[in-house]
User: What shape does this take?
Amino acid sequence: MTLSPFSRRALLAVTALVLVLMYAPLLVVVANSFNPDPSMTWPPDGFTTEWWVRAFHSACARDAVLTSVEVALASTAVALVLGTLMAFALQRFRFFGRNTVNLLVILPIALPGIVTGVALNNAFRGILAIELGVATLVVAHATFCIVTVFNNVVARLRRMGGNLEEASADLGAGLWTTFRLVTFPQLRSALLAGGLLAFALSFDEIIVTTFTAGPGTTTLPIWILNNLFRPNQAPVVAVVAVVLIVVSVVPIWIAQRIAGEAETVR
Assistant: This one.
């Protein structure tokens, strides 16, 4: 279908408007991190890196970043293992209840975060009688990080088929040899992309974190929320928010590039 010149211009205008509405607030946050006025007046009347220095020397902010990285790495590791195993089970085998299991696997990312958070909080504290902390936070984040890995691996397995693995078995290779030399090389880019997306999702998650972190565990999003309305911390919060944007966007960009390159190679 060919669009008329008017339709193309209208579509371009709408697209530009949507992009501006989406990304202009992020650019304002970046600009405010260099705003010399602590009250964040707009537009900025100068340029300073003082808030970046203060953020770098803030022990609480550094601890929050470290906690977020540790939780994201642990959640990603769990998601890579469980998501890959479930992808193989649901893609390569047929069994009773397969569709139901597939729905249950992807359901956590479709549910509202507050529902997942309340459910996990009740499970940890009410049913299992477990104190909330880093361990419960890792488990909570892994519930939705698994979905990103699962979707990437399932999509790759569907494109791969099983011919090469069957040929490897016919030539006498064992299960683990076939996986190491045939299957895994074809899955590497999907696993890396899924892992990067899982890390990004975990790193900036706040809703589920609020219900499962416990009073002694502060991640970077929680630190930002706690300091957002403190006037003396507003510039430092802007700096930390910029760091959060970068750490969240870069893995997603890399994952998209990896997925695109994999499609080009195929």
Summary: The radius of gyration is 23 Å. Residues 59-92 form the longest helix (34 residues). The mean pLDDT is 81.
